[in-house]
Amino acid sequence: VTHSIPACIGSMTINGKQLDNESPVSIFAVNKCYETVQDGTFFDGSGFAALVREGYKVRSDVNITLEFRTTAAHGVLLGVSSAKVDAIGLEIVHGKVLFHVNNGAGRVTATYEPRGTNSLCDGKWHKLQANKSKHRISLIIDGNLVHTDNPYSQSTSADTNNPIYVGGYPADVKQNCLTSKSSFRGCLRNLVLTKGQHTELFDFSRAFDLRGVFPHSCPGAEH
């Protein structure tokens, strides 16, 4: 077994002596336990999760679905880039959700802006679907569809080769389709990427790099 247990552990004694877990000598990727907990992964606003070390190839088509819950108006949701300009990115900026795609010819953005006082940053779960089909891109938030025109219809493939960064990205990593550097604070769950017939559900506990991210437990309410 090479990964940690997703659980809460308390009242541990060794040889009759209770361990003091309030002031450990060292600590890594250990969060507090919550009285009320939901399925999901908690992002504390300081880091990111890195998936697919060998690099994810978006190319012509990809469909991304996830659910998010946050009270912050800004935060990176997901980015996949390349060393060149090809990339895709999902982010929350000023309470709007932006889906950016660059197939090499220029960045195109689909923007979802909640109507009226309806907020996506209300601490409740919201469902997101972002679809890239060649040069066409669309965004669906809670069943509401946004299309955008793409002036670069001849360019159809995002030739990415970098990992998938979720909730943020390292300072030394370039992201060509993200405008925000703010790490996401809140909870994510059910991240699925589909290409053709291949569907992959990503388990954050299997990420090759996790910073400020706590898989499998999401506080029932923001603390």
Key attributes of the depicted protein:
globular, ConA-like_dom_sf, Laminin_G, Neurexin-related_CASP, Jelly Rolls, 223 residues, two-stranded antiparallel ribbon
> What is the total domain count?
1
Mean pLDDT: 92
Distance between the termini: 32 Å
Number of strands: 17
Any idea what the CATH architecture is? Sandwich
Under the CATH scheme, which class?
Answer: Mainly Beta
Run of helices and strands: EEEEEEEEEEEEEEEEE
Structural class: mainly beta
Using the alpha-carbon principal axes, give the shape.
globular
Total DSSP helices = 0
The residue ranges in which pLDDT falls below 50 over 5 or more consecutive positions are none
Largest sheet: 13 strands, antiparallel
Gyration radius from CA atoms, angstroms? 19 Å
Helix content: under 10%
Beta-strand percentage range: 35-45%
What is the fold-level CATH name, i.e. the topology? Jelly Rolls
Write up this protein:
By secondary structure, the chain is mostly beta strands. It has a single domain (40-219), classed as Jelly Rolls. It contains no helices and 17 strands. Strands 4, 5, 6, 7, 8, 9, 10, 11, 12, 13, 14, 15 and 16 form a 13-stranded antiparallel β-sheet that branches. Strand 1 (13-14) and strand 2 (17-18) form a beta hairpin. The chain is globular. InterPro entries: ConA-like_dom_sf, Laminin_G, Neurexin-related_CASP. Residues 38-218 form the Laminin G domain.
